[in-house]
Amino acid sequence: MMFARVSVLVRPSRILSLNAKRHLATANSFSIPVIDFSKFRSASSREEKKQTAHEIVKAFKDSGFIYITNHGVTPAEIQTAFQKSAEFFQLPNEVKDTLAWEDPRSNRGYVKVGRERVTQSADPAEIAALRQKAPDCKETMEIGRDWDSVWKNRWPSEAHVPGFKQNMLDFYETCHELHMHVMRAIAIGLDLEDHFFDEKIDEKCHNLRLLSYPAIKTDVLKDDGQARAGAHSDYGTLTLLFQDSVGGLEVKNPHTGEFIPATPIPDSIVVNVGDLLARWSNDVLRSTLHRVVAPAKKISETETLTPARQSIAFFCNPNFSTEVACLPNCGDVAKYPPVNTEEYIVGRLAVTYTM
């Protein structure tokens, strides 16, 4: 059966003035700084790169989050990725379900609404109870490196979403390249050799996640524990987050416990530290809790509706064979024992999803 191609236009947010939001400050000087990454990528010497590198590392020490602008990912690339993502999620459920996510070691395929429950808990029984009571109100499509000899991506047919596969493969490579540059900035900011991380992240063991948050009545989200995506930290080194104009991402102020909106800024990418990078740095760099909530729109005298939302997250990971242990220059006493990347990530995923 053939399905009509859906024309969807998703534009990055234009609701904020970048100059007015150079720093989104909150109580206790908690802020998510906006960093012009072109100053690092175009620098002609290590000394020139240091200023931006130190800004990034300082922000990751303080809040664990930054916005980067002039990052090298073009608006056209981002727009097309959102377009193709929207076309995929508008396929009939029976088509998407044929591509269902199957195994945490693969971490590829379609995840329907209610199957995942992100949380900080590592207790399978506790997570199962949370999922039963208050599943995350989102659906996702998970994409890994396409040449993996063991685990294969689950692509929709070209007839269903023309150009989807090639666009996502291209976007995957673009995001990996940006990840390499940001990790080099972190290395410089931590007074390590510029290319310290290169051979530890070059196998592209990442996860490109397309996210769709369907419109939902706001009353549903008022149930105890219910959320678009519950409070959690990410698993790997960095996350690159591309937001639409709806917003909803909130970051927890580690000093007050208050959740602060990470409002979309035009042409920026939100970048945050994941758990493995925090462990690698002995918690010098902060992996900060965050969640997705939902702005409400009144649809009647008694009801409000949370609008549909799209985002794209690129979860950056070390090579799966990499042992993550306390980095040089990050303390004399390691807080954590060494951990294998693949074992850590698969373990976290295994308790997050229903099988």
From TrEMBL:
<comment type="similarity">
    <text>Belongs to the iron/ascorbate-dependent oxidoreductase family.</text>
</comment>
<dbReference type="InterPro" id="IPR044861">
    <property type="entry name" value="IPNS-like_FE2OG_OXY"/>
</dbReference>
<keyword id="KW-0479">Metal-binding</keyword>
<dbReference type="GO" id="GO:0046872">
    <property type="term" value="F:metal ion binding"/>
</dbReference>
<dbReference type="Pfam" id="PF14226">
    <property type="entry name" value="DIOX_N"/>
</dbReference>
<keyword id="KW-0560">Oxidoreductase</keyword>
<dbReference type="GO" id="GO:0016491">
    <property type="term" value="F:oxidoreductase activity"/>
</dbReference>
<dbReference type="InterPro" id="IPR005123">
    <property type="entry name" value="Oxoglu/Fe-dep_dioxygenase_dom"/>
</dbReference>
<dbReference type="InterPro" id="IPR026992">
    <property type="entry name" value="DIOX_N"/>
</dbReference>
<dbReference type="Pfam" id="PF03171">
    <property type="entry name" value="2OG-FeII_Oxy"/>
</dbReference>
<protein>
    <submittedName>
        <fullName>Clavaminate synthase-like protein</fullName>
    </submittedName>
</protein>
<dbReference type="InterPro" id="IPR027443">
    <property type="entry name" value="IPNS-like_sf"/>
</dbReference>
<feature type="domain" description="Fe2OG dioxygenase">
    <location>
        <begin position="204"/>
        <end position="318"/>
    </location>
</feature>
<keyword id="KW-0408">Iron</keyword>
<dbReference type="InterPro" id="IPR050231">
    <property type="entry name" value="Iron_ascorbate_oxido_reductase"/>
</dbReference>
